[in-house]
Amino acid sequence: MDSSAQVIVAQISDPHVVEHGELLFDRIPTNAHLEAAVRCLASLDPRPDLVVVTGDLVNEGRPAQYRELRRLLEPLAMPVRLMCGNHDDPVGLREVFADHGYLGSEGPIDYVVDDVVPLRIVALDTHVPGEPGGHLTATQLAWLDARLGEAADRPCLVALHHPPFATGIAHMDEMGLTEAATEGLRDVVSRHPQVERVICGHLHRTIARRFAGTVATTVPSTAHAVALDLRPELTEGASNAEPPAITLHLWRAGIGLVTHTRTIGDFPGHLFGPPEH
Fold first, then answer.
1. What single DSSP character describes residue 197?
2. What is the pLDDT of residues 227-240, one digit of tens each?
3. What is the Cα–Cα distance from 160 to 182, expressed in whole angstroms?
4. Which domains does the chain have, with CATH numbers?
5. Residue 154 pLDDT > 70, yes or no?
6. So what's the pLDDT on residue 104?
7. What's the pTM value of the predicted model, to 2 decimals?
8. How many CA atoms within 13 Å lie on the side-chain side of 201?
9. Chain-centroid distance, C-alpha 269
């Protein structure tokens, strides 16, 4: 098959970048982790056509942190699209990434990525100032409905930071997408069968479930993981130093959309060769 008949969208999430030379919580080297993720992305063959970062770009939303984020992403040769999470500040993000026109100048950072044909990506801003949980307004949902309706023949990824489903990790579900936004999103997505995947961050883990006639997924952080604790009475969570990862969404003619998770780190390539005959 002609290699031009495929598209690869890389998704990374929740890098929680801090100021240059600092550590998150005085112990987690989130900046170094993102640097390793960038090296991993740059080493892939074939390289992704686009990188989407699904929120919590930095930890406190300060301009110095966004400047460090920009420095860390600079080596990437492919286009990058940024999204807001609950730790982000749209004002600081727009100030430092003023040349990223898709971020707009005011209001929610909702946009469409149309140049990774045949895929289409619709990004939604679930950030609520001062709140850990997320929301989508009726205006945003109507905008999504219109954007999906104008390209019904193209496979689509809908991207947002907060997942539209309960995960079973109780303390994270307490800071999830509001019920009204979840039901509104379900109603819109269910009317548009070209939505191949709803891709999210926020959970720092790989989680998947059926949603509105498609599949909704969360992806790992490039830094630390939220501990896997499924006790329903859990009120406070913990973080783990599990292997960080990137996610690759591959669309190929004749196959459709397939999602892969690639752990970041140095591992021997082709440890097991082809069988001898």
1. E
2. 999 998 877 888 88
3. 12
4. 11-263 (3.60.21.10)
5. yes
6. 96
7. 0.94
8. 35
9. 27
